[in-house]
Input
Amino acid sequence: MRYKRLIAGLVILIAGGLIINSLMQSNQPPQNPEELTNNETPDNGDKGNNASPDGERFGLGTYNTEQVVEELLYIEANTEPVDEAHRKRILVTGSTRGLGQLAAMYLIERGHQVVVHARSESRAEDVRRDLPNALGVVIGDFSDLEQTRQLADQINEFGTFDVIIHNAGVYGAPAEEMLNVNSLSPYILTSLVNKPQHLIYISSDQHLEGNLKVEEIVSDTPSINYSDTKLQILALAMTVSRYWPDIQVNAIQPGWVPTLMGFHNGNKTTPDDLRAGYMTYVWLAEGIEEGTDATGKYFFQSEEDSNVNPVIYDEPSQDQLIEAYETKTGIPFPRD
Output
């Protein structure tokens, strides 16, 4: 009788596991690349804080994948605070989901004062729920350059940050939106926000397939793609590093990881490690470990990546890029 009860119990456990797995599979994120952004929900935030059909935390199946949600819960349960002497004030743009939210949560759990960024008020409600211990939330849609200008004022109300991580980005969007979000908005914030001690820009290995296309930056109908914008942002980082030698300026490519952006075009797997991706943000931002005092460098998984387009170091090309940014936005770059 004891063995019959044991077998019956095992059958129940297996059946329950199959049911849970089925429910989780049905809650996978949408696969349309036109909907995939790094600082917004697939529905542009209209659902407000209805994070998922069953109201779970962290937007499982709407603005975060199962892998990201699991990692957020892991961070919450396992992260130890850093010594008070190492705590910093940090801004992370595009921090309502994916890598930006993971980095923000880890830094918050470590005891840093972290200001997060949302595209809209409804997404701000989500991030206030998801990251209740954030120092504050700033709101602005990077696809609208006037909102980006206003966002700079909101950021400056917090004073001067130790670290700013320019994480927000879009993929699979119209050319003008990608230019505004991935390239022009980080330039605007760099130029208008109080200069921090450390600037970190997020690029991609896809920059290797891009071109600077400075003439397209000033065009009313830019012909530009994701790879171009990621080359531009990497070149911007190296340019800022040259002009501002008194602060640290670096760039990161986090890899192809299982966020909504990583699952574009029907992808069901990704080759790179999610934790190694966001922990590179943390590693550089905290600046505690060896190698984190570097400037003018490009990193992948907490190591310098030398596989870059050499145009990012070409000073005439850097200056042409800055001039195009100035012409397009009407905002001069503070060169000293």
Remarks:
- The CA atoms of residues 103 and 282 lie 6 Å apart.
- DSSP finds ten helices and eight strands in the chain.
- The two ends are 82 Å apart (CA to CA).
- The longest strand covers residues 113-118.
